[in-house]
Design a protein that fits this description.
There is one protein chain. The chain is mainly beta. The chain has three domains: 115 residues, no CATH class; 198 residues, Jelly Rolls, CATH 2.60.120.260; 321 residues, Tachylectin-2, Chain A, CATH 2.115.10.20. The chain is 5% helix and 36% strand. It contains four helices and 40 strands. The chain has a five-stranded antiparallel beta sheet. The longest helix has 23 residues. The radius of gyration is 26 Å and the shape is globular. The structure holds calcium ion (2 copies).
Length: 683
């Protein structure tokens, strides 16, 4: 206890000193204040107290909800409440142009922070003047930008990028998906070419959702360095794992467990076909770091040197906290027992091995080992190879599973058809969605009493008119309600769908939402910006582009006001942007739930919808390039559940995307329109 008290005093002095500097050194009123308190010297560990205030507007609730981000912190610094090491106040605050707020860190430390409104945008003109921006006379297109999935569809989870080998992590009330970040590659003449794995997988894409249909893009985790071919898409993190021991990060597998009283998050990855690495973080959205200065498994790991494809980690943490890792794949591909599967217990810290990886038989293993516990039973699952098969398995590249009573086996002998024997759960995408995918990669997860499977399919490149060129996109389909799974544990075979899963719950418009929380979109990208909420903005905004959010519940009291945080471009000087807020648009073009889009005759977009408000975005003189808050009263009070669409106008004009292999998707966007960061409705 003596040590505790001493440390408290030291922390108190440091926080006071840093905050005095932050306050006295406040720059101009138009800049958002982010106040970081970092204890020093370094022996105080990685503790960071973060207090972030979002500037507000006069109609906002007086006190916004306080969200406490969990993280690891040395217990001696914050005894009794280790989760209270980081506070992020999210919301728009009521009051005048300048605000002061205090947060009590503990009984002895109070942090005071100041911030000011961002007011770099001209006042809103009359409604008719803003409406005129959305007309042909101002270059607004007759048809909104194409979408790569039909309006109302939930697969793929994201359409402004790709994501292969998806893995799911459920934490608190959200599902997090991590996926290999497939990135378009071009030849010298600008045509899209088939991705190669070495250059095409550029980091790990991270997404989250509370409802399984609207996904927040957390950007790309830069594990081993990327060679981005897209100037619009920048990495969100600094290089995590140096090239000296990892050259690639493929096929992530994510999990979390309580360590030292705090949740700790892990993403295991494949160093191409030559080893397994791991990164960790105190939250599911990072920041990530490399906890060991080497690969966890490499060719020198006992019993791993000869594994044909030493890759595709599948991590599993049992209810008792014990971790397990499954891996391996490859040749021979014409036999039942390939000898390539490995499984091993992990150390308590999750970043060490608690034994020698043992060889076992995942029948017809091609790749993608996983282990999942469902209603007390252990499901080993994997993608099969092209061999002729006995028992329940028949096709090539099926995702299969078998059931056992222990994560380290035994599992029933393969080839049979009795209880626990290998069974298919998902056939190859080429046989279901008409894509050119052969193999697949999957993960099971439970969410709100239902079992789901996430997998990839090249549906988006198909929609872009790229034919058999395959860049993989993450999908989710439902397996079953948990209550409906029979006592023998046998799962129904899942059909891949384009429409995807039903929304779980509704989207809340009355909290600070990220513009990069997307159900569907036309024509935009996202990119990392340091001063943005969630570190990301919607970018590449052209006239006719749009972002849609499915299933938004405005409640019975209804929404009367709307606030957005946007960033104006630095040039051109007289730039004007605008957002038109619409409800419940109609699907246009191809409307069948089972049709493939192909980029030529089979295309999809949206039209119509009820306009409930419009915002003009025009920087004040000398304020171009800054973020700004802009608020309007809606044209009407909105109640009930609606799909919500933000339709964009940009004075740089429309920029329709050319589909097909000659379509340079990245070049066919204006890079310097306004950018959209956050939004919120108010009663
Ligand atoms: Ca665009
Ligand atoms: Ca944002």
């Amino acid at each position: 206890m003596k040590k505790n008290n001493k440390c408290f005093i030291r922390v108190f002095v440091m926080i006071t000193a840093v905050f005095c500097l932050a306050i006295t050194g406040c720059p101009g009123d138009s800049e958002i204040k982010k106040i970081f308190v970092e204890p020093e010297p370094p022996e105080w560990g990685a503790t960071v107290v973060t207090v972030t205030f979002a500037p507000g507007y006069a109609g906002a609730p007086e006190i916004a909800p306080v969200k406490i981000l969990k993280g690891t912190v040395a217990d001696y610094l914050w005894p009794g409440d280790p989760e209270r090491n980081a506070y992020v106040f999210k919301g728009w605050f009521k009051g005048a142009d300048k605000y002061t707020a205090q947060t009590i860190i503990n009984d002895t430390i109070t942090v005071t922070a100041h911030w000011a409104l961002e007011i770099s945008i001209e006042d809103q003109p009359g409604s008719a003047e803003v409406a005129a921006l959305f007309t042909a006379a101002n270059g607004f297109p007759a048809q909104l930008s194409d979408t790569w999935k039909i309006w109302g569809h939930k697969n793929s989870l994201l359409t402004h990028g790709f994501g292969a080998d998806p893995t799911a992590l459920v934490y608190e009330d959200k599902v997090y998906i991590y996926a290999s970040n497939d990135s378009l590659m071009y030849n010298a003449s600008g045509s899209v070419i088939q991705m190669d794995y070495a250059a095409g997988i550029q980091g790990t894409r991270s997404l989250s959702s509370a409802d399984l249909v609207n996904w927040t893009d957390h950007g790309v985790i830069n594990i081993t360095g990327v060679r981005s071919t897209n100037p619009l898409i920048q990495n969100t993190t600094a290089l995590i794992a140096p090239y000296k021991y990892a050259s690639a990060a493929w096929a992530p597998s994510a999990t979390w467990k309580m360590l030292g009283g705090s949740p700790k998050f892990f993403v295991f990855y494949a160093n191409s076909g030559n080893g397994i690495g791991v990164i960790s973080a105190d939250s599911p959205i990072g920041p990530w770091s490399s906890p060991i200065d080497r690969l966890l498994i490499d060719r020198d790991t006992p019993n791993c040197g000869s594994v044909s494809w030493l890759f595709d980690p599948g991590v599993f943490v049992d209810d008792d906290g014990q971790g397990y890792l499954y891996l391996g794949g490859g040749d021979p591909q014409n036999v039942e027992n390939t000898g390539q599967a490995r499984r091993v217990k992990l150390g308590h810290d999750m970043i060490s091995l608690a034994g020698i990886p043992e060889t076992w038989n995942m029948p017809y293993l091609f790749e993608a080992s996983e282990l999942t516990k469902i209603k007390g039973k252990y499901y080993a699952s994997w993608v099969t190879n092209s061999a002729s098969k006995s028992g329940n398995l028949s096709g090539s590249y099926q995702i299969a599973y078998m059931i056992g009573d222990n994560p380290m086996g035994p599992y029933p002998a393969s080839g049979g058809s009795g209880f626990g024997a290998p069974r298919p759960i998902l056939n190859a995408p080429s046989s279901q969605l008409g894509t050119s995918d052969e193999n697949n990669h999957h993960d099971f997860f439970e969410f709100k009493d239902r079992l789901y499977i996430t997998y990839h399919a090249s549906t988006i490149t198909r929609a872009m008119g790229l034919g058999t060129i395959r860049y993989r996109s993450p999908h989710i389909d439902e397996v079953a309600a948990l209550a409906s799974i029979p006592s023998d544990g046998i799962l129904p075979q899942v059909a891949m769908t384009r429409i995807g899963v039903d929304q779980v719950g509704r989207f809340n418009p009355y909290v600070l939402n990220e513009a990069e929380s997307i159900g569907n979109q036309g024509g935009i990208y996202t990119r990392a910006v340091e001063d943005a909420g969630n570190g990301m903005v919607v970018t590449a905004i052209d006239s006719g582009d749009w972002v849609g959010v499915y299933g938004v519940d405005f409640g019975s009291a209804g929404a009367a006001k709307f606030t957005a945080r946007v960033r104006t471009p630095e040039t051109p000087e007289n730039y004007v942007g605008a957002i038109e807020i619409r409800l419940d648009p109609a699907r246009q073009g191809i409307t069948s739930d089972t049709a493939n889009l192909d980029g030529s005759s089979s295309r999809a977009w949206i039209s119509g919808g009820e306009v409930i408000g419009r915002i003009r975005i025009k920087a004040k003189e000398g304020e171009a390039g800054n973020f700004s808050i802009v608020s309007i009263n809606l044209d009407k009070t909105v109640t009930g559940v609606h799909d919500l669409v933000f339709v964009f106008y940009s004075s740089l004009g429309a920029k329709p995307i050319t589909t097909g292999t000659s379509g340079n998707f990245q070049a066919s966007h204006h890079k310097n329109g306004f950018e959209f960061d956050q939004w919120q409705f108010f009663n």
